[in-house]
Write a structure and sequence with these properties.
mainly alpha; 434 Repressor (Amino-terminal Domain); 2 domains; 0% strand; elongated
């Protein structure tokens, strides 16, 4: 086995991914398992720097959580207020107020950090 080094290039990254594939399933606490853990940490650091992901859009986060929890628009009325307000929010015609953000965070467990981000308006053709 080669010495472990930081991943500094795309080539290093590809080699690390290939080695992870070979080591996949190694038992924790064994030399191969330890190497897998270290490689995974190095890969994660490289990906965070070179392939950053934007946090989700607030409306997409709400829709995702609704889907996860089997909620309907009617269920959101208890959180956001009227049927019209729910429709306006989900259709990006109304921004989230501080009270809405608090309620969504408390009732649906969506991170306030995600909810305070500006809502992307749909692109029109």
């Amino acid at each position: 086995m080669k010495d472990l080094r930081p991943i500094r290039s795309e080539k290093d990254y590809e080699h690390a991914l290939a080695e992870v594939e070979e080591l996949w399933g190694a038992k924790a606490g064994t030399p191969k398992g330890d190497r897998l853990d270290i490689l995974a940490t190095l890969i994660e650091a490289y990906e965070t720097e070179h392939y950053p992901m934007d946090p989700p859009d607030p409306i997409e986060a709400i829709k995702f959580r609704m889907e996860q929890q089997g909620l309907t628009r009617k269920d959101l009325e208890e959180i956001l207020g009227t049927r019209t307000r729910v429709s306006e929010v989900l259709n990006r015609k109304r921004g989230l107020s501080i009270n809405m953000i608090r309620a969504l965070h408390d009732k649906l467990g969506i991170s306030a950090e995600i909810l305070i981000r500006s809502i992307r308006t749909p692109k029109t053709a």
